[in-house]
Design brief:
Number of strands: 6
Bound molecules: zinc ion
Largest sheet: 4 strands, mixed
Number of helices: 7
Number of domains: 2
Radius of gyration: 24 Å
Structural class: alpha+beta
Order of helices and strands: HEEHHEHHEHEEH
């Protein structure tokens, strides 16, 4: 096994990968190497070819660290939301067992790993945002309190424009479907949205179950 792989080892591995010169079955994986020309290759398999090991013989983090040393960007194809949920689950698990947690913290890397993420976004209408801010006149449209601070850039009252029915749920990007909120109310709205989603999901599971 090569410990200090170089950029041309990765290039050679990509060439072999393209020619199907490897002996394992490829399964869909989350992490991909991103090349300067914008192509994506599965990190785990490219690294395996480059170091001459089988994929189960190393962890994804080892492969990521090697890419960090080479300054090669890698991306996660999972959605941001899934990563957030995974983090929440890990925090819950970590809270269960302090002894193990402290043990892991002793050897944990203090440098966070970075990732590039591909995500789908909506292009919002700037006129809707401006009109709603104009309508609110510096006061939160939920609690009616004054905006907590002014923006440094232009000294305008800081409010966030929120969609009442989410764009993701088919809501309109319109003045009628938007409200200007203070950061606390905005956070709270999204908190309740999450709770309602969970209740909906639970209820549909119950209905399925009782069929
Ligand atoms: Zn508010
Ligand atoms: Zn919002």
């Amino acid at each position: 096994m090569k410990n200090n792989i170089k950029l041309n080892d990765i290039e050679a591995a990509i060439a072999l990968y393209k020619k199907n010169k490897f002996s394992w079955n490829i399964r869909p994986v989350d992490w991909h190497i991103s090349t300067p020309t914008g192509e994506l290759y599965p990190l785990k398999y490219i690294y395996a070819i480059a170091i001459g090991k089988n994929p189960p013989q190393f962890t994804t983090n080892q492969a990521k660290n090697a890419m960090l040393h080479l300054n090669l960007p890698y991306v996660s194809l999972r959605f941001v939301k899934e990563n957030e949920i995974a983090l929440h689950n890990d925090v819950d698990a970590s809270l269960q067992d302090r002894a193990s947690r402290l043990h892991r913290l002793e050897t944990a890397s203090k440098v966070p790993t970075k990732r590039l993420v591909i995500r789908e976004e909506y292009d919002r209408n700037s006129d809707v945002i401006a009109e709603v801010l104009d309508r609110a006149k510096g006061y939160c449209e939920s609690c009616n309190e004054k905006a907590p601070f002014n923006r440094l850039r232009d000294n305008r009252p800081y409010l966030e424009v929120h969609h009442i029915v989410r764009l993701a749920d088919g809501g309109d990007d319109s003045v009628q479907n938007a409200e200007a909120l203070c950061p606390n109310c905005h956070r709270q709205k999204h908190f309740w949205l999450t709770i309602f989603k969970l209740i909906e999901k639970f209820q549909s599971m119950q209905i399925e179950h009782n069929k």
